[in-house]
Amino acid sequence: MFMLGKIQVGYLVSYDYELLKNSIPTIYKESNTIFLAIDKERKTWNGEFFTIDDTFFEWIDAFDVENKIAIYEDDFYVSSLTTMECEVRERKMLSDKMGIGNWLIQIDADEYFLDFSGFINDLRKYDSFLKNPKENPVQIGCFLTHLYKYTNEGILYVENLTRVLLATNYPNYKVGRKTKARVIYTDKILLHECLSRTEDQLAFKLKNWGHNVQINNSFFEKWKLVNQENYKTFKDFYYIEADTWKTLGYFPTKNIDEIKNYVSNNKVLRISSLYLFFKNFGQWFKYLAK
Predict the structure, then answer these.
(1) Which residues are CB-contacts of 81 (< 8 A; sequence separation ≥ 6)?
(2) Regarding beta strands 69-74 and 155-158, do their DSSP bridges make them parallel or antiparallel, or are they unpaired?
(3) Residue 206 belongs to what domain range?
(4) Can you tell me the mean pLDDT for 163-188?
């Protein structure tokens, strides 16, 4: 098998840095290098300050037994740019640091792989794209199970999966992690703790992330009202176009490892080979039609 580049993983580190303690262990073994991009001034893309406790770096030192984790500090906030423009700029800077010619995988701190080893096996099938990245750009995607809100005894989740683009050979990002290159999807799934925060944490995130100007007016009030007793009486939960997430389900545990087992054994939260075939065929045809 042709194997050219390294497996380089990057994270944009900000106010939700503690969640990296859940995410990094899921990708550590198969990664060559793991880059943590942190703003020098500890500013968000909206210009607000955040702090990182020293104990986090102590955790990194203790966990990183193979010396794979690299801290990359730079000025990622630019006052004249929107939050999304700051995000795209930082992702490009991080990818340049990771090194063109490798598989560049950008994972958010609140995303936890269920099977990163399987994803890398899938990724290596396309190593030929690493020969001339600029002439043959490609994006490799997975699917997210969104964790919506912690309750007294468990956690609410979104019942439909969402596509996400994680890896590329050429990081010409346009919006978030999206480029305009051909897309190839794998059937691998990640947990996404996008909204499952405390009310204060979520309010801060909504103000400072790349989608801050896109949030619909009804989202946050609905999020505050819904719980494990009444969630079936609500619908349309997405923070931008509400009806994208129509219904919620419920996991009777708050333990992330137990939730992974629930997802792995849930037939609804699974990508069929037939769906994947037609999804990738459509992407291939769309690419040829350009």
Answers:
(1) 45, 89
(2) unpaired
(3) 7-288
(4) 95
